[in-house]
Amino acid sequence: MIVVTAPTSNIGSQVLENILDSGESIRVIARDPSRMPEQTRKRVEVVEGSHSDLDVVTKAFQGADSVFWLVPADPRAESAEAAYVDFARPGCEAFKSQGVKRVVGISALGRGWPKNAGHVTATLAMDDMIAHTGVSYRALTCPGFIDNMLRQVEVIKSQGMFSWPISGDLKAPTCATRDIASVAARLLLDRSWSGVGSLPILGPEDLSFNDIAQIMSEVLGKPVRFEETAVDALKTRLLSRGMSEGMTQAMINMLVAKNEGMDNREPRTPQSTTPTSFRQWCEEVLKPAVLN
Predict the structure, then answer these.
(1) Could you say which of 152, 206, 209, 257 would form a disulfide bridge with 226 (CB–CB 3.0 to 4.6 Å)?
(2) What mean pLDDT comes out for the span 100-111?
């Protein structure tokens, strides 16, 4: 039995799609099962509720061999620790009480970074908590997602630009969620691994935002430029959209750490180099979104 949390999320839905035809029994935890495609819903067992609820995870993990663990975004949480560590406490209790053997979790690069990096610091603390339950655990440690660029489609369309409070010249890894989901699915279906470890997902190349703008321009057939924005401007914007003070500061702390090179400390290896390039993703995903 494999349990998938957050099955309607970007990554979770792709993980689920990747294992549907495996022949394994699959159970999902969903707060709103109606958001799942009807054909998918018919092929899995659904436990309705949040995986932050002890009763829900205790029921869902009964008889489970492997669990895919992803914490959903909560912009109104009191703090990053509340959003990740506190959210995961019931799950960790259920991993132990229900005898779950293996857990695959979505995590972040940044182990050993000397300063508070907001979301990253809290995510790594969650990893440590999961690891101490006694399960075999693989944390998929990721940089920024290529797919996040879809949040800026409208400004790319209307103004031919995108922005973020990161230096335009800083080359760093970035990865596609499809590749994360592929690695996660492989681990969920593999019963041979054990112990605790991490697996970086670094994409095929390091790119700066200026590199990304150039690739966008070539793929879209129109000029696109990158503009570095001020951290304070982003903070004001996030607060105005209803993000809590604690989560806003966590986001700022993470971005400052990334701008200082946090994601560049992980050595690239054949195992951490995943296939989807930014150019390929632009052709297949961004271009249709911008031109439609």
Answers:
(1) 209
(2) 98
